[in-house]
Write a structure and sequence with these properties.
about 80 residues, alpha+beta, YefM-like fold, elongated
């Protein structure tokens, strides 16, 4: 991790952006205090694995059966 001042970045922003693009993380300082972190964006988005919750629950046979009238009435505010 590289620490640079705001003034240094303003002098040659392209140089520091190339460093970030190559994987470097920059800590930006103002008056010797860290104010920001500049890091590369992770371009690889991890997908959730297929079957992550396999065998943790079972869908009942009547999953899509109509609801009883009393429950429907409660949803409809009757």
């Amino acid at each position: 991790m590289l620490s640079v001042t705001v003034d240094e970045i303003q002098q040659d922003i392209s140089k520091f952006l190339r460093q970030v693009q190559s994987g470097e993380t920059l800590i930006i300082l103002q008056a010797d205090k860290p104010i920001a972190e500049l890091r590369p964006i992770s371009s690889i988005k991890q997908l959730r694995p297929f079957g992550l919750c396999a065998d943790e629950f079972t869908v009942p046979d009547d999953f899509d059966a109509p609801l009883p009238e009393d429950i429907l009435s409660a949803f409809e505010g009757k």
